[in-house]
Amino acid sequence: MRPAPQFVAFLSFVALAVVVTAQAHETTHNNLYFIHPWIAEPPPGVSTVAGYVVIDNDGDAAERLIAVSAPFAEKAELHSSSFNDEGIMTMREVEQGLEVEAGGSVYLEPGGYHIMLFGVEETLVSGDLHMLTLTFEHAGEAEVEFVIQKRDEPSGHGDAIDDEGGMTMDHDTSMDMDHGDDS
Ligand SMILES: [Cu+2]
Predict the structure, then answer these.
(1) What is the CATH number of the domain that holds 147?
(2) Mean pLDDT over all residues of the chain?
(3) How far is the CA of 89 from the centre of ligand 1 (A)?
(4) What b/e string do you get for 42-62 counting C-beta neighbours within 10 Å, with b at 16 or more?
(5) Model-level pTM?
(6) Ligand 1: centre distance to CA 172 (Å)
(7) What is the pLDDT of residues 7-21, one digit of tens each?
(8) What is the pLDDT of residue 85?
(9) Are 157 and 35 in contact (CB under 8 A)?
């Protein structure tokens, strides 16, 4: 039996809605632009998740992202990723914050800087939107909406996350990673 045309039309609509949701979106706060804020959809049962965004500073003065918080996470930190001598990727907290030069950008992207959310009990599903608060030294608190997105989903924002294509590390699924904060 062939599916009814109405059902096919409905499916097309759903597919379109998903594509639109996955499109890049942007938020502004003072002279700061937040380009394609997204959180990688975690596998079921995983409560540590990573968030990414490109921050443009259109102002005349340097800015600094000093803190992150999310109502749905117990704790949020800014992390950097790097490879140690054995070629293992390790992450550590960026305690001094992240500078965004005047007229410059900072990239939070897979394999580099990222927002790490701990203790997320809520199920994060692709397409959902969640607010995070990004606190800056001068501009104060910016409320930024992040979209939950599968890592391999096309983002509609090529220049910001093309780099993730070759990404093999996935610290969200591997809990034996050195988070640099186990002390
Ligand atoms: Cu991390």
Answers:
(1) 2.60.40.1890
(2) 80
(3) 10
(4) beeeebbbbbbbbbbbebeee
(5) 0.71
(6) 8
(7) 555 555 545 444 444
(8) 87
(9) yes
